[in-house]
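tokens incoming
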């Protein structure tokens, strides 16, 4: 998760509900050719 407290979820259930509802994440990086973003599907599995 993001290190800034403004982006944290108060509990794991809320975080899992958000992931289940949205279903995608973004991974940002910088390459010699410039900034890039990858769209990543997320899967919530019961533990």
């Amino acid at each position: 998760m993001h290190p800034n407290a403004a982006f944290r979820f108060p509990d794991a259930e809320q975080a899992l509900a958000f992931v289940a509802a949205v279903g995608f994440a973004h991974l940002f990086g910088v390459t010699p050719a410039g900034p890039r973003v990858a769209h990543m599907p997320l899967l919530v599995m019961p533990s």
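note: The longest strand covers residues 24-31.
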